[in-house]
Amino acid sequence: MALKDDKPDDERRDFLMLLAGAMGLVGGTAAMWPLFGSLAPVRSYDESAFVTVDLAAIPAGRSRTVVWKGRPVTVRHRTPEEIAQARAEDTGALRDPQTDRERTVRPEWLVVVSVCTHLGCIPTERGEGWFCSCHGSAFDASGRVVSGPAPANLAVPPYEFIGDTLLRIG
Amino acid sequence: MIDMEPDRFKNPLVRWIDERLPAFSIFRRHYIDHPTPRYFNKGWNLIVSVMLMIVIVSGLFLAVHYVPHEDHAFEAVERIRRDVRWGWLIHTLHANGASFLFLAMYVHMGRGMLYGAFKTPRELVWIVGVLVLFLMVTISFTGYVLPFGQTGGWAAIVITNALTAIPFVGEGLRLAVLGGDGVGTATLMRFYVWHFAVPFLVLLLVFLHIWSLRVCLGKKDGSRNHYEDPRLVPFHPYHTIKGSLWLCGFLIAFTIVAFFFPDLTVSPGNRVPFDPLHMPDRIAPEWYLLPFYGMLRAVNFGINPYIALSLVLFAAALRPFYTRGAFRAGRAAGLAGGATLLFAFGYLGQTLFAAPFGVLFLVSAKSAGAAAFAGMFAVLLLLPWLDRHPVRNGRARPWFGAGMVLFAAALVALGVSGAMPATAPWVALGQVGAAVYFLWFLAILPVLNRFERGGRE
Q1: 3-class DSSP state of B109
Q2: How far apart are alpha carbons A43 and B181 in whole angstroms?
């Protein structure tokens, strides 16, 4: 109780205050974790989602768009000229360098998520490639970005061929 | 100055309450007896407050009928417009009220800039106001998505994709905002909660805005302490009546649009249900967000080393105006000219040739666009430290006045560019607007601080 001894007690109290404050901060931050975590997408029902495409219905030079996980996926049956053109551009200077062989399993079938890698608009097919009317990005016959603000090539989803006429995306 | 002792109310019930909870005294002091200089304000503060109350109250009643679900949202809004009793009225007041609230806020802020209302000691009044503007932008954007039409749904996709430009947390933030890979029920629920809850945060900020103003009016700003002015008049009836006149005129214009042209500012695309596979030809926000959207579009180029170096040269040319160091005209002109040439080289290079300019990016086009969007708010927040000219009233500064006209023109150019297709002349117009917007804050204002004379005051 002696008042003359208050200095050591002050330091002890300062330390305890700091410790309590720091613990409170840690606890408060930890409490935020589940709150922000709860905002993550609920995945359980679409994790195994896949779609099957009948390739026999798509003639050469045409394409078909299907919905996979809420996004449009374009399956394009490329003509030999388109394949040649895509391969010719392998050697050009690309923003996101990838060869056509890396982007396809069978050269006549190009499968890409047709969502622009810039801000998520849907590019339309123009000539042998794609053009996005939102901000003017252009993509070649392999879905690779050739101009405009898009930072990356159109994404290639996981897919496999089942026999000669079926394609399974996902 | 009116004395600040507790008031003695005649009504015994009011007096009984006021002695325990002085709400009546506070209201009387701040909204009735409050001494005010006779020269200030045309009532835009009152107009903004009333419009805010109109959209909040009408929104509460719309919320009763809204269903945040991808299969029902569009129908729910149509049901409000067609079947709910008085629904058409509440809906048109809410949708057009947002337009007129933004109109009033922009005029209020423009007058704040022109009359130097952000200068010492009222910096926080301005900063809180800019925060309110930012929150209002997010509130109106989420509200635009709720009817789940084509324009709103695709706007949500484009804007949340812009979030991915933020380093490290961007992709996680996009998923947290959308609640999935695409726009759906989870998105509508999130946007509904934000649209409903954040306006109450805005009310709190408006309270802080007025509180800070009341405190600052009692401090010396420049040559004058408002409460020591010998010509003060009480707030009521002088300013309330004057404000009400302006309010009536504004509300007449508002109701004419709300009743006779209810879809004037609504994009027709938002009356078509959202379809995640078919993008509409035109994606644009409502008119009051067009300048922000125009900025996102104008910066369609990445920062390559040439542009980065040119920005450094620009900063070097402007350095004396920030450090108050010695200014040498020849050196500044050389640096600015070199910077401009370098910028043109870096920009044209990446636009005309894919390689090598279009490949070598320090900052991608996507990130640069998002950074420019954030920069629009950042320079507004910094305005009190950018415009440090000792003359408070911009109307006493002819060069500043001309600059304000240029600034307004830049906003219009950005807005027009945001509304038009992303093709050659419109993108270029937006780029000129974007350049003038940032030059006004970061170059013209600091230069005027140094060179514009004291003016009339």
Answers
A1: helix
A2: 10
CB pairs under 8 A between A and B: 97
Concatenating the DSSP letter of every residue in B337-378 gives HHHHHHHHHHHHHHHH-TTTTTT--SB-HHHHHHHHHHHHHH
Q: Where are the beta strands (DSSP E) in A42-101?
A: 51-54, 63-68, 71-77
Instruction: Report strand pairing: A166-169 vs A51-54.
Output: antiparallel
Collect all residues with Cβ–Cβ distance below 8 Å to B264 and sequence separation of at least 6.
B96, B257
Interval A44-101: pLDDT, tens: 555 557 888 899 888 888 888 888 877 889 999 999 888 888 888 887 777 888 888 8
pLDDT digit string (tens) for B159-186? 898 888 888 888 889 999 998 878 889 9
Which residue on chain B is closest to A138 by alpha carbon? Answer: B354
User: What residue segments make up the domains of chain A, in order of their start?
Assistant: 12-41, 46-169
**Which has the closest alpha carbon to A75: A51, A47, A48, A100?**
A51
What topology does CATH give the domain A46-169?
Rieske Iron-sulfur Protein (2.102.10)
Q: Work out the angle at residue B309's Cα, subtended by the Cα atoms of residues B447 and B423, and round it to the nearest 5 degrees.
A: 85
ipTM above 0.85, yes or no: no
The reply to whether the predicted model has a pTM over 0.90 is: no
User: 């302490």: which residue's tokens?
Assistant: B225
Residues of A in contact with B182 (CB under 8 A): 69-71
Cβ separation B355–A39 shorter than 8 A:
no
